[in-house]
Amino acid sequence: MVSQTLSKTGAIFVRDARCALSYPAYFHSQWVAIFVEVTIAYYLSMIVAPSSSFGANGQTGSYFTFLVVSFAFVTFQNNAMLSFAESIREGQTTGTLEAVLATPTSLSLIVLATGLWSFTLTLGRVVFYFFLALFFGLNLHHMNWATAGVFLILTIVSVSPIGVLAAAATMVFKKTGPLAFSVNSATSLFGGVYLPLTKLPLALQAIGWMLPITHALNGFRAAVYGASLWDLRVEVVWMLGLTAVLMPASLYLFARTVHRGRHDGSLGQY
Amino acid sequence: MRNVEKAFVVRHGARHAFSGDRRKTVLHDVNLEVRRGEVIGLLGPNGVGKTTLLKMMATLTLPDAGSIEIEGIDTKKNPILARSRIGFCGSDDRSFYFRLTARENLRFFGALAGLQGRQLQRRIEETLEEVSLHDAIDRRFGEFSSGMRQRMTVARALLSDPDVVFFDEPTRAVDPLHADEIRRMIRSDLVESRGKTVVLATNVLEEAWSICDRVAVVSNGTIAAVAPPSELASLQPFTSIDATPIELFKALTACG
């Protein structure tokens, strides 16, 4: 049972990796894009003075560090939104979704394993962001690596349900765009991607506080300045709690949309 | 399959997608018992509900009423177990990953079917050999012709060596030579040698006549008659038919 689950998960990972790598120009261009983003962050930070708002753990931080963490980590959520939904959409239009659903594989495995390649790639992108940023003066001397590792895992786990929800929406609406655009825009505004959450009005701060990406960014930024897991316990508890609620809810909703597709014969419709 | 019914929402264009929707009954009172080790054909013209019937048997579409059992497994209550016993060869020959090779595609679907390691490798080689695609094993699916793609759907359905195989127009777009090979493989290899049960949807009368033990005529949303091909033409209301293929097809599918 376990070996079959691992084998099926591996098969989905290999499929996605092979498909992605079969477009080499597209694959390589994303690394160039990271270089451009880090450069933009560097020059933007030159016109914004270091501030305690950008730091954490009682330290003053640079806008460069703030932006690099934002740019690197927000891709987890953006990729979650896109990869789950696009995989479903592609399956609908080519008919592979029906072929996959005809196999004795659970729905939760089919949808969750779909994010595995994307998250692995994003992890590589995050490492590349930080590697490049080191040449632009990113200071990781105080980094608490254990805290950073935990927040990396928590980020992946907590944004996965959002990807599953996007996949469920795609099952119904047969389009990937609108939901992903709305969530990604909301994240940029409320999640503290471009500016600290404390600069927003209280009502907007409350919205931001509910998003998992806000806590992921807070946690990782604090880890860069040496914060321990205990210092960030509120973030950890909130992200775990949110995942505990959203994961089963999103999987249930996805199962309902597939059930609906089976009922109205629209699994292969586009 | 007992008292199966199915209706779909029919949408009337984009502008009036909601206001003009209505439910159209596609299948009603469908009762069919398929015997173990036989080839049963679902014969009928386009749009009569053959694919819907097959998809319901393959758990891809849910019936509104009635029940379907495969090897004693209720497909509604235990779909995953039922799927482990069936192979589904759909009519959509695009349903593969175009950037992957035949081997990579079958490795993926084989793993989802529960095959692993050497057994999976062996089955990939065997099934591609069976559909005469072994020479193209490491070619990208996107480079395949329509006929080759159709044969890939047959290979995928046979990959896990299932007890029951559903074929939805398996020779569509396949040249006569390979179509004949597929028919012989279904009849001789799958059924006569290995004892598989096959349900075959087709609108080709000769195909139904040449490989099916029994033919179920799908007409007016139900199964109008089930009989061996040799007996079907002699049943009422077909007795008056001078059995040229087109006239017989018209008569068979107009009944009900």
Please name the defining characteristics of this protein:
heterodimer; A: 270 residues; mainly alpha; 11 helices; 0% strand; globular; B: 256 residues; alpha/beta; three-stranded antiparallel sheet; 11 strands
Would you give an account of this structure?
The complex is a heterodimer of chains A (270) and B (256). Helices cover 76% and strands 0% of the residues of chain A. Chain A has one domain. Chain A has 270 residues and is mainly α. The model of chain A has no long low-confidence stretch (mean pLDDT 89). In chain A, helix 2 packs across helix 6. Chain B is built from nine helices and eleven strands. Chain B has a six-stranded mixed sheet with strand order 7-8-9-3-10-11, with helices on both faces. Chain B has a three-stranded antiparallel sheet with strand order 2-1-4, with no helix packed on it. In chain B, a hairpin with a 2-residue loop joins strand 10 (214-219) and strand 11 (222-227). The longest helix of chain B is centred in the last third of the chain and has 18 residues, at 176-193. The chains are: A mainly alpha (270), B alpha/beta (256).
The major pleated sheet of chain B works out as: 6 strands, mixed
- Order of the strands making up the biggest sheet of chain B: 7-8-9-3-10-11
Helix tally of chain B equals 9
Q: How would you state the average pLDDT of chain B, rounded?
A: 85
Strand content of chain A: under 5%
Secondary-structure element order of chain B, N to C: EEEHEEEHEHHHEHEHEEHH
In whole angstroms, the N-to-C terminal distance of chain A is: 34 Å
Label the structural class of chain B: alpha/beta
- SSE topology string of chain A: HHHHHHHHHHH
Write the layout of secondary structure elements.
The complex is a heterodimer of chains A (about 270) and B (about 260).
Chain A: H1 2-21, H2 24-45, H3 63-94, H4 96-101, H5 107-113, H6 116-135, H7 145-173, H8 177-190, H9 202-210, H10 212-224, H11 233-264
Chain B: E1 2-10, E2 22-30, E3 39-43, H1 50-57, E4 65-67, E5 69-70, E6 73-74, H2 79-83, E7 86-89, H3 102-112, H4 117-130, H5 146-158, E8 164-168, H6 176-193, E9 197-202, H7 205-211, E10 214-219, E11 222-227, H8 229-232, H9 245-254
Parallel strand pairs in B: 3-9, 3-10, 7-8, 8-9
Antiparallel strand pairs in B: 1-2, 1-4, 5-6, 10-11
Helix pairs in contact in B: 3-4, 4-5
